[in-house]
Amino acid sequence: MKKLLVLTAIMITVSACSKKEVKNFILVEGGTFVNTKSNYYGKSVTIPSFYIGIYEVTQKEWIEVMGSNPSEFKGDNLPVEMVSWYDCVEYCNKRSIKEGLSPCYTIDKKKEDPNNDNENDDVKWTVTVNMGKNGYRLPTEAEWEYTAGGGQKSQSYTYSGSNDIDRVAWYWVNSGDKNLTGIWFWSTIEKNHCKTKPFGRKGSNELGLYDMSGNVREWCWDWLSNETDPKGRIWKGGGWIGGDFCCESSFRGNHQANGKGADQGFRVCRSK
Questions:
Q1: pLDDT of residue 229
Q2: Strand partners, 264
Q3: By percentage, how much of the chain surpasses pLDDT 70?
């Protein structure tokens, strides 16, 4: 009887751990891009399998690691925002250490990144990544877009999980007291009390991921440099304050790495 009780306890523990892992992350099966609307479709890009958070990093998760909450809109189940790219890579390393994992990032705060010529960025830490480590990190843009687009289960939706933006995303039209119409105006958005929403309230995409379109913009690892904007780190997915086009899985924006906003958050992943 004693052995049976011990075995039962072990089975319950294993089951609980499995449920916890499924609840927080999914294993994304790698491959080439199936989503025909992706920037990477038809190109020689293959994504290795990896784990990614089902939800954007919440304020509760942030506080547990960092000890404070920078967000404008407070709530344990709301996505953390008002975080810079530098804040996010620090979070990844600290969470990795806390959970006994190997940090992915090497952060040199004393050495100015020679590749960062953005005059608006007064931080310019030199940050390198080791993708072979098992700790938390930001997804690359290709990983993010592959996942948001449904991976190997993609139905080639415009937004992450649907062609109907209101089914899957919080954006400027529907993130307030009532649905807005007409042209985007900040004063209208402010009067409508538009803001972030608790995770998982909209529909998921083909892989079971939530809020990859809308709620908060999500930092990625990569740089984006073009002819019109200063060099910055890529963000994807759009946010509660943004237009519908920003929520398209293929849309890429960039922001100086030290930039922050009430619609700027992130999602973490781990290499397999």
A1: 74
A2: 217
A3: 91
